[in-house]
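thought: user wants a sequence for this fold. calling inverse folding tool.
action: design(structure=
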């Protein structure tokens, strides 16, 4: 967490910071510092089970703490994959030829703007199977065109897992029932259909397809959410962009993808540390400022931690670096 909050660029930079800065050593609780060999051995072999537990518990606390933005839309989860650059020595992160990449498959709670699940795989891993893995029954996965698969549409419905998926304009649609659309609105198509070619790859279960235009751009969505209006479905898909914003913010301001480890074990530890930091920030920013996470508040928090840690009564064992009662509560629970 110190690595992320201080925006360090490498493990060596973090270790030098711990070696040179008395306050940093006090916060982390290692008066004599950490040797480089010990640090890298630890991150690649220790703590994954505990990190998963902390993330799971803290995610539950965040769900109970943060407000639901649009409750009428239900439990909506954006699902997407994000590449992580890997070195040639990371043979497990196979991608293409002489290029290695890993991929984080992430579920993102759109109503609270927080991550909910994460899985790590090689860069070539198919993203579609992770929809069933990430979603719980009753949740709605919000996904882009890459996830379009008619067999999966049937499977998800059988599992009571809903979906709002952007599909290709050329998708073959056999109309079963056409819904009325407003003549002057953005929606120009709303129907219950079977998708695909009969006898080849057609869905067994009916799905709803809507077509609409926003700023001269055309979108087609397939869903099994028959209970929502076309406008609400448009809103759900628009919210999907929040996971892209999260990936960008996570990479830029918490430096999550600056590798501290080269093994899948160590990389997962690092990813979980970044998620835990983000969840704590989300709770902090909500309780203190009634705002979403921002780099402005991160910098303020970083300065507050350093100021308080220099106080004569500072006690790192009691973790008095946290400024709010809610953070103390969340930290104590985890």
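)
observation: tool returned 334 residues.
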């Amino acid at each position: 967490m110190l690595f992320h909050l201080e925006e360090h660029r490498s493990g060596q930079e973090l270790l030098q910071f711990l070696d040179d800065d008395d306050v940093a050593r006090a916060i982390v609780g290692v008066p004599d510092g950490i040797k480089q060999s010990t640090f890298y051995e630890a991150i690649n072999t220790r703590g994954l089970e505990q990190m998963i537990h902390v993330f799971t518990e803290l995610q539950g606390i965040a769900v109970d703490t943060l407000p639901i933005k649009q409750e009428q839309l239900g439990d909506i989860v954006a699902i997407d994959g994000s590449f992580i650059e890997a070195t040639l020595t990371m043979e497990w992160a196979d991608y293409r030829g002489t290029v290695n990449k890993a991929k984080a498959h992430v579920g993102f709670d759109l109503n609270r703007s927080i991550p909910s699940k994460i899985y790590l795989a090689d860069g070539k891993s198919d993203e579609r199977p992770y929809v069933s893995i990430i979603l719980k029954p009753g949740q709605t996965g919000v996904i882009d065109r890459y996830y379009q698969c008619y067999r999966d549409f049937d499977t998800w419905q059988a599992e009571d897992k809903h979906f709002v998926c952007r599909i290709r304009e050329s998708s073959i649609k056999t109309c079963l029932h056409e819904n009325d659309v407003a003549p002057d609105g953005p929606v120009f198509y709303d129907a219950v259909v079977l998708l695909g070619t009969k006898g080849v790859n057609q869905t067994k279960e009916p799905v709803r397809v809507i077509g609409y235009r926003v700023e001269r751009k055309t979108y087609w969505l397939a869903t099994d959410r028959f209970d929502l209006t076309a406008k609400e479905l448009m809103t759900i898909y628009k919210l999907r962009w929040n996971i892209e914003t999260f990936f960008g913010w996570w990479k830029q301001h918490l430096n999550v993808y600056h590798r501290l480890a080269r093994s899948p074990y160590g990389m997962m530890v690092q990813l979980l540390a970044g998620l835990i930091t983000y969840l704590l920030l989300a709770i902090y920013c909500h309780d203190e400022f009634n705002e979403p996470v921002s780099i402005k508040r991160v910098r303020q928090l970083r300065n507050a931690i350093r100021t308080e840690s220099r106080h004569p009564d500072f006690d790192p064992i009691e973790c008095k670096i946290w400024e709010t009662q809610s953070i103390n509560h969340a930290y104590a629970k985890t």
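thought: summarizing for user.
answer: Here is the designed sequence. Residues 2-144+240-333 form one domain.
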